[in-house]
């Protein structure tokens, strides 16, 4: 589907040629000089007249009028050359890809060397371009009746470069895998809840296991009753849909100790239970499995790119609904860890299912745990929707996660967890823990509750309640990069 080519890129007959453009300094050298010559020096004029901007975030599609074989050139504005980094290229290509979408391109060529600068090599640029391009082209097709227009799909990408073809090709594969996993997470999250039940999540995990050779284990309600997963089962007990505790294991070698583990909240629909949500607050709660989706997306990337270290994924999957069997506020439940929990609010269900998932992960030899969850509305109040809120019990491990998030271009901000906070989480007259100790520090109460089950195991909690809405697929790449580092 894509090929690396050395040679004069002006010979490409692709539907469009993608070119990076720095505005300061605007140098008509290299790729641009070659292009300008093909246009008898007219490109320079376009820039001077403002018809073509190289400013960061601006893209332009211009027809070539048969001056060269390709039908049009898509320029991606990169801004100041000295400041342009991996993320600049990522954002510019996202904009260029969206802007050129209406042309129904079936083949594109990339003038890779036009993106290279002192901060970014051709290999890094190739990864940024592929990742951004495939992410930008993602659309959730949904269930509308299809129209008669045949959809045009991209069939080929040629990358023109003077850099090492083998290395560039490998970088393109990495970029494409990153985008693929992210798009999978987006698709899972966007799917309506009647078509994305716990069984559907388990089915998706099974497909991943078959495709990439992961070990898979799915615990059914009866299995969980036997081992005493009382916290997860309390949330699931109102549902007619069978709950699933899904575990995937990626084992690149014999070693299975201190395993890097991802735990994703898989609430396929959150009504709030008897602490029911309002008629407005309930809409959109199909996305309450975005944490599970990020974990499954990351496992897809791990399957594609096969890092050296073992990785485990644990996903507690159920909906949170009401029936005669459902759990109630004031119930006291016993978690897999043995700790008892007073349920003050059935809408604080994420922490209950994650508690047992984390204990289970530890039993399966998790050594470092990252949980990803649309856990609280409170994180949106605290940080807005462009940031993922984090808590940790281990600063060095948090630093590793933070570094991975920087590489992914995903914004994480750590919240404090004090002894005072922990006291509030343990405040109950009838049990060891309280699942909803009041409005103050809402996001911290939620994450801190989960930390009670991580105990001494290095753990990072990522609350994506806001970020998953603004950036679907969020944290997929951060997790994958962490596994690859
Ligand atoms: N799934 C919600 C959190 C959420 C809210 C996600 C908005 C996405 C958008 C979670 O289960 C929940 O309801 N949390 C409550 C906790 C409270 C009852 C302690 C909340 O944040 O209001
Ligand atoms: Zn809830
Ligand atoms: Zn929820």
UniProtKB/TrEMBL annotation:
EC number per UniProt: 3.4.11.1, 3.4.11.10
Keyword match Protease: yes
Catalytic activity: Release of an N-terminal amino acid, preferentially leucine, but not glutamic or aspartic acids; Release of an N-terminal amino acid, Xaa-|-Yaa-, in which Xaa is preferably Leu, but may be other amino acids including Pro although not Arg or Lys, and Yaa may be Pro. Amino acid amides and methyl esters are also readily hydrolyzed, but rates on arylamides are exceedingly low
Pfam families: Peptidase_M17 (PF00883), Peptidase_M17_N (PF02789)
Residue positions of the active site: 277, 351
Free-text cofactor note: Binds 2 manganese ions per subunit.
Gene Ontology annotations of biological process type: proteolysis
Molecular function terms, GO-annotated: manganese ion binding; metalloaminopeptidase activity
Keyword Metal-binding: yes
InterPro entries for the chain: Leucine_aapep/pepB, Macro_dom-like, Peptidase_M17_C, Peptidase_M17_leu_NH2_pept, Peptidase_M17_N
Localisation per UniProt entry: Cytoplasm
GO annotation, cellular component aspect: cytoplasm
Domain Cytosol aminopeptidase: 345-352
Enzyme class: hydrolase
Binding positions for Mn(2+) 1 per the UniProt entry: 270, 347, 349
PROSITE patterns reported for this sequence: CYTOSOL_AP
Protein name, as recorded: Probable cytosol aminopeptidase
């Amino acid at each position: 589907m894509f090929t690396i080519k050395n040679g004069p890129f002006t010979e490409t007959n692709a539907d469009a040629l993608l070119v990076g453009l720095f505005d300061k300094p605007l140098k008509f050298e290299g790729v641009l000089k070659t292009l300008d010559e093909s246009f008898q020096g007219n490109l320079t004029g376009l820039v001077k007249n403002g018809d073509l901007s190289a400013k960061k975030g601006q893209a332009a599609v211009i027809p070539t009028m048969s001056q060269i074989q390709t039908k049009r050139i898509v320029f991606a504005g990169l801004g100041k050359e000295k400041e342009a980094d991996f993320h600049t290229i990522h954002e510019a290509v996202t904009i260029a890809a969206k802007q050129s979408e209406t042309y129904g391109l079936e083949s594109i060529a990339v003038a890779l060397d036009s993106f290279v600068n002192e901060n970014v090599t051709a290999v890094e640029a190739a990864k940024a371009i592929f990742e951004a391009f495939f992410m930008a082209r993602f659309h959730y097709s949904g269930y509308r009746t299809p129209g008669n227009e045949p959809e045009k799909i991209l069939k080929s990408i040629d990358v023109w470069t003077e850099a090492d073809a083998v290395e560039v090709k490998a970088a393109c594969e990495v970029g494409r895998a990153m985008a693929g996993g992210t798009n999978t997470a987006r698709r899972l999250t966007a799917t309506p809840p009647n078509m994305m039940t716990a069984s559907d999540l388990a089915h998706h995990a099974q497909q991943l296991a078959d495709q990439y050779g992961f070990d898979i284990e799915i615990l059914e309600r009866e299995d969980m009753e036997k081992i005493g997963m009382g916290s997860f089962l309390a949330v699931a007990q109102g549902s007619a849909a069978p709950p699933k505790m899904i575990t995937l294991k990626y084992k690149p070698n014999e070693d299975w100790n201190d395993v890097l583990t991802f735990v994703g909240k898989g609430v396929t629909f959150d009504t709030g239970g008897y602490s029911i949500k309002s008629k407005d607050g309930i809409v959109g709660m199909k996305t309450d499995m975005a944490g599970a989706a990020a974990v499954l997306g990351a496992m897809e990337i791990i399957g594609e790119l096969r890092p050296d270290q073992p990785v485990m994924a644990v996903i507690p999957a159920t909906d949170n609904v009401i029936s005669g069997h459902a759990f109630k506020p004031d119930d006291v439940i016993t978690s897999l860890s043995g700790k008892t929990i007073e349920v003050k609010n059935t809408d604080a269900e994420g922490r209950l299912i994650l508690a047992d998932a984390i204990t289970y992960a530890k039993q399966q030899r998790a050594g470092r745990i990252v949980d990803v969850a649309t856990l609280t509305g409170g994180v949106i109040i605290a940080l807005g929707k462009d940031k993922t809120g984090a808590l940790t019990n281990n600063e060095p491990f948090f630093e590793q996660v933070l570094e991975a998030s920087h590489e992914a271009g995903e914004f994480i901000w750590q919240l404090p967890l004090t002894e005072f906070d922990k006291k509030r989480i343990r405040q109950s007259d009838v049990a060891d823990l309280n699942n909803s100790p009041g409005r103050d520090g809402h996001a911290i109460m939620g994450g801190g509750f989960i930390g009670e089950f991580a105990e001494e195991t290095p753990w990072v909690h990522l609350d994506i309640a806001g970020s998953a809405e603004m950036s679907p697929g969020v944290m997929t790449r951060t997790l994958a990069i962490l596994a690859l580092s």
